[in-house]
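Limitations

Structures in this collection are predictions, not experimental determinations, and the ligand pose is part of the prediction. Treat each record accordingly. The example that follows, with pyridoxal-5'-phosphate as the small molecule, is included so readers can see exactly what is and is not provided: the inputs are given verbatim, and the output is the predicted complex.
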Amino acid sequence: MNPDVVQFSRGVPPIEAIPARELAEHTEAAVAELGPRLFQYPPIGRYLGDPTLREQLAKRHDADPDHILVTNGSLQALDLLAAHLLSGSGAAVYVEGPTYDRAARIFERHGGRVSSIPLEADGMDLADLRERLRAEVPAFVYTVPDFQNPSGVTLSLAKRGELLGLAAEYGFTVIEDIPYRDLRFHGETLPSLSELAEGARVITLGSLSKVLSPGLRIGYVISDADTALELATRSEGVYLSPVGLCQAVAARALGSGLVTENVERARDFLRPRHDAAVRSVQSSLGDALMAVPDGGYYVGVRVKTGSDPDAFLDRALGAGVKLISGSAFYPSTEKSTVDTMFLRLPFQAMTPEEFSTGVERLAASLS
Ligand SMILES: Cc1ncc(COP(=O)(O)O)c(C=O)c1O
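Predicted complex:
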């Protein structure tokens, strides 16, 4: 790949947002404290993960530690959860359109009939969901409510309440996936779906990848005690037990306040990148912007490609910008044929100059 090509590809944290030195110190301290035991198999038999880490996560989310299973990254939690909720049943699953691509693929792999609910500037179109519920109630609705991957859209407070009302009325589960939730650069944090749940069943997926380190591979799922044990049994059948060393380091990082400090540092580092990215999309692509994200890693746009999607992506690459096809962010059965394409523009790992060069090249490829 030509190094001059601007790549709008993955949501990898910038290396500056990972507290490597402090993590090395915590690793040394964890080894000194726990000794050879850290290098033995962690326990098996419905093991939910490092008890100290679960205590820390429970405090962070005001949850019961017995409701938390810690996994090797939250994608693994999603895979275990999909296996548990779908068991190859062919049940319906509703996701946002666009949605996190890997989530859609996981649900499809576990036999879900995945279809999307259109995403608006304030979250999924609930009139559309309501209509769809009259025809079929899904096993679950999957949402990334804060600074969504891939669009940057946040589900509004009013829609959070309405979605939960529908979940309680029709009896479906809501999975909220919240890895970006703490990375708010402007405005007030909204309550999470689990905080608002009342009569609805909400399962929360969390991750330390974007607030501490993706290399530690610490993800978790917060559900209820029975589901947590069920998922733990499934996890043992796949990888015996999770990585004890990483969990011990993560427990120290949370307990010492490093995660809280690092969230502040990451926000300060990313805020100018976010602001510059929004300005450059507004000036080069105008009303293609789906929403001003105010947090997270991504800006989402809907553009008129004026041609077949593949021809447009080739033209953009020729102009020096590599883009992921928007159809990747939809269920496989919904490949778009129209000339409007969704595009995800991650801004977190680029300087403002690099980002705006990419957006200008993108704009030039549209005409
Ligand atoms: C919405 C969403 N969920 C889950 C993940 C997976 O994160 P993890 O590193 O915890 O596996 C990502 C990673 O980018 C993500 O954007």
